[in-house]
Design a protein that fits this description.
It is built from seven helices and ten strands. About 35% of the residues lie in helices and about 25% in strands. The N and C termini lie close together (about 10 Å). It is globular.
Amino acid sequence: MTAIVSTRDLRKSYGVGTPVETEVLHGIDMELAEGEFCALIGPSGSGKSTLLNLIGLLERPTSGTLDIAGEPTVHLDEQGLTRLRGRHIGFVFQFHHLLPAFTALENVMMPSIIEQGIASEEAERIARDLLGRVGLSGHEHKKANQISGGQQQRVAIARALSLSPRLILADEPTGNLDTHTADDIFALLREFNRERGSACLIVTHDPRLAARCDRQIELIDGLIARPDRL
């Protein structure tokens, strides 16, 4: 299978060149296949969020290689990283990061507005359809701070899917939710994975959810604790 993510000896240090320089990731070799649904697990402080931020092109590695959709990234400038991220990657965060002054519909349309510079009719159609798919028909014109936490997370998922990304990265997307809502959110991600073929890499501390993924990658102290495979 074709890899959507491929890393070789990926390392990340903070405070480089200072007396407190600390290496957080110690050489990560992993691949995530197109359409795969994978859990990234491990104890707090093991480097999961750091690895997700590197794969999401939000941070740069200290050394090693990272390819997204077959394209090497380590030598790209900020414009190139932004272009690649916008073309291929959708994000779902634990704290959803919606814009409170905007409606649910506007939040879902935001990636398209940023990419195209306008709020097109097609972007609105897609956003309305996605909100319906996540069970929020009738909430389109409510401000983000006027809906519940579970509903906000559904908006965040719709936003992440609005440009049909090949890769969805989710950092503890159910961490703040009750068990029932967490199961619903997980099911939605799984549904879009199966229907649209988007690969998903999900950081989770919930062993129930991790067990329902295609496979698990475990990080301990900045290293993969079990052999990775496609």
